[in-house]
Specification:
72% helix; globular
Length: 198
């Protein structure tokens, strides 16, 4: 087997190569597929998620309601801030994965968004959307499903528009969930203050 060494141990280089090949194949299937009816909507969704604009708009609406929705908004924004810092200042600089080759994958011009200059891994858009959905959903369970679906759609849109591999999106989603959990745990350890009573 390609992934097993002579001593019966796993050959991680083979596992990594296989994972990258699968990631590339999934990218080509999604980004290179012909779906003209979805292209414009997913392109606009991807753009709307730039700088977490969607999450910040939802947070603003929740904050106006006061009480628990306001606390959910604050924790959601805090989770987005932490996730963005970890993704952009740490993970992208450590991994330095190149962006996909849209020309080789024949990604339709009509679905494209500007190719970011930053590294591809992880997807910052997905990470922030997942962090917000997780944080807000933990405080307001009825919001968990729609915000989770929105985060999933943002992640898919980043592959559909050709700027991320599926693996980048999966890693971003995991990072967002973990950062939101860290913010929730930290807030739970604090005495009532701006994080818990705002």
């Amino acid at each position: 087997m390609g992934g097993v060494g002579e001593g019966g141990g796993v050959r991680w280089d083979g596992v990594v190569r296989g994972g990258r090949a699968l990631d590339g194949a999934l990218y080509a299937a999604v980004a290179g597929g012909s779906t003209p009816s979805l292209d414009r909507a997913l392109r606009e969704l991807s753009r709307a998620a730039d700088r977490s604009k969607i999450s910040l708009c939802v947070a603003g609406a929740l904050a106006v309601a006061g009480g628990r929705p306001r606390r959910a908004a604050l924790r959601g924004v805090g989770s987005v801030a932490l996730t963005s810092a970890v993704a952009n200042l740490l993970a992208k600089r450590l991994v330095r994965r190149s962006r996909p080759d849209r020309e080789a994958a024949r990604v339709a011009v009509g679905r494209r968004v500007p190719m970011p200059a930053s590294a591809s891994f992880p997807s910052g858009h997905t990470a922030s959307a997942a962090a917000f959905a997780t944080a807000v959903g933990a405080e307001l369970p009825p919001a968990a499903l729609p915000l989770g679906a929105l985060a999933g759609a943002v992640g898919y849109a980043r592959v559909h528009t050709g700027v991320h591999y599926p693996g980048d999106v999966a890693a971003g989603a995991l990072l967002g969930v973990l950062c939101a959990a860290a913010v929730r745990a930290a807030a739970g350890r604090l005495q009532p203050n701006a994080l818990t009573a705002w």
